[in-house]
Design a protein that fits this description.
It is an enzyme of class 5 (isomerase). Pathway: Carbohydrate biosynthesis; dTDP-L-rhamnose biosynthesis. The structure is a single chain. This protein is mainly beta. The strands form 3 sheets. Strands 1-2-10-7-12-5 form a 6-stranded antiparallel sheet, with no helix packed on it. A 5-stranded antiparallel sheet has the order 9-8-11-6-13, with no helix packed on it. The relative contact order is 0.24.
């Protein structure tokens, strides 16, 4: 497994496994505590694993947590997703930086998203399973959502949106969220 820094988001990493493929399919390690530790992250900090299943065109996000935030490892375990991270940490050298990735069940690449960054994704295949490993128990009172189509972010979502939650549909702009954070 190889760890690679994400230049557009300080502290973000891609963890790329080495799959072993043969006529049966493949096998790969999707989490390695030693590799996570080698980039300065505490592998024991992750306390919750979650899974979402989405159909083609579904958009989830942009989400983040208030308070201490939430760091997470995100991996598409089946299918393909277009994944987006926005750095909303005012003290970060990449503040307001954006990065997008295609994550797939074929590569099993995992993206580490530091606390204080917004995250969202869109399913690119008929079925896309997305796995999350999160460093804090979920507290719905800390949920923050930013409009996926905010013109300031200009995220190039690859497909028309077929479905999203009401919370995501009614999300405020980035400017409104930042104003609320400062106030």
């Amino acid at each position: 497994m190889k760890a690679t820094e994400v230049p557009a988001i300080a502290g973000a990493y891609l963890f790329e496994p080495t799959p072993y493929a043969d006529e049966r399919g493949f096998f790969c390690r999707t989490f390695d505590a030693d590799v996570v530790r080698s980039v300065g992250l505490d592998p024991d900090a992750f306390v919750q694993d979650s899974l979402s299943r989405s159909v083609r065109g579904v958009l989830r996000g942009l989400h983040l947590r208030s308070g201490a935030g939430e760091a997470k490892l995100v991996r598409c375990s089946y299918g393909r997703i277009f994944d987006v991270v926005v750095d909303l940490r005012p003290d970060s050298p990449t503040y307001l930086g954006r990065a997008s990735f295609e994550l797939s069940g074929e590569t099993q690449t995992t993206l580490y998203i530091p606390a204080g960054c917004a995250h969202g994704f869109q399913a690119l295949t008929e079925t896309a399973d997305t796995s999350y490993r999160i460093d804090r128990p979920h507290d719905p009172s800390e949920d923050v959502t930013i409009a996926f189509d905010d013109p300031e972010l200009a995220i190039p979502w690859p497909l028309p949106v077929t479905s999203m939650s009401q919370r995501d549909r009614e999300a405020p702009s980035l400017a409104e969220v930042l104003k609320h954070k400062e106030g």
